[in-house]
Amino acid sequence: MVEGLYARIAKWTFVYPLLLVSSVVMLFPLAWTFSTSLKTAATVTLREVKLIPDPVQWSNYITIFEESPLILYTQNTMYMVVTSVIGGVVICALAGYAFARIAFPAREVLFYVLLSTMMLPHVVQIIPLFVIFDRMGLVGTFWPLIIPRLLGHNAFYIFLMRQFFRGIPLELSDAARMDGCTELGIWARIIIPNSKPVLAAVGIFSIQFAWNDFLSPLIYLGPKKELWTLALGLNAQKGFEGEITSLHKMMVISVYMIIPMLLVFAFGQKYMIEGVTFSGMKG
């Protein structure tokens, strides 16, 4: 009883205030970004930090769409997001099921070889991949961005799937197999319906990666603005092309990129945490 009282006092005295301060520190940059996006060109240059702009200029959000082809960039980005989710969820789920439930020669060796690819920095793969796609004549198109994503290019997703599938009781698969169900049928009717947390987690990771990816579109799409994704187009306007130099307009662009990811995380955080947590419960 006394120990429980001391624990509650400690939480209210130290833990909760520390969490509150940490939350404020983490949220301040986001609040400042949104506040700056509503300022005028005159007030944005003031040195004083004001989270409530005076006056509030909502027209900044309309102006940025008139000055920049954000709708086209967003449309191109959605192609990447959709293909990334299909490859991450469907293809990686098939590969994860094979490593978890199908016995084939050198299965464990191949799985550890797959895991070892996670140790390779992304920059090491850039030149070989570019040479391959260039010789195929695909540079300057969406295909160098779409093909790797559709093929389930991320070994981490396969690892999560495999670990989660190993936690599903074997009896369910054996019963379906005795009823004449094929391996693909077991995957579709037994494994997938019982794997919503890990599927949601991989889906969120895939969306985040495709939405924020800047380097790959920069390498493969080049100067073709009609093919630019959102991250590439917005960074071009914010930086290396100098099309937008006003700080408040840069913050409008930043808010435009942040809000979708916040919504995805807000609605999917429960499943994402469950998927990552349960994937590590069985080796």
Written description of the protein model:
The protein is an all-alpha fold. Helix content is 73%, strand content 0%. It contains 13 helices and no strands. It has helices at residues 2-37, 59-67, 70-101, 107-116, 122-135, 143-150, 155-165, 170-178, 183-191, 196-212, 215-221, 230-240, 247-279. The longest helix has 36 residues, at 2-37. The radius of gyration is 24 Å and the shape is globular. The two termini are 39 Å apart.
Key features?
mainly alpha; 73% helix; 283 residues
Task: Summarize the topology.
Blueprint: H1 2-37, H2 59-67, H3 70-101, H4 107-116, H5 122-135, H6 143-150, H7 155-165, H8 170-178, H9 183-191, H10 196-212, H11 215-221, H12 230-240, H13 247-279
Helix pairs in contact: 1-13, 3-6, 3-7, 3-10, 3-12, 7-13, 8-9, 10-13, 12-13
- Mean pLDDT, nearest integer? 83
Query: What are the low-pLDDT stretches, counting only 5+ consecutive residues below 50?
Result: none
Cα Rg: 24 Å
Oligomer: single chain
Q: Which sheet architecture does the biggest sheet show?
A: none
Number of helices: 13
Strand content: under 5%
> How many beta strands in the DSSP annotation?
0
Helix-and-strand structural type: mainly alpha
User: What's the helix-strand series?
Assistant: HHHHHHHHHHHHH
Briefly characterize the structure.
This protein has 283 residues and is mostly helical. It has helices at residues 2-37, 59-67, 70-101, 107-116, 122-135, 143-150, 155-165, 170-178, 183-191, 196-212, 215-221, 230-240, 247-279. Helices cover 73% and strands 0% of the residues.
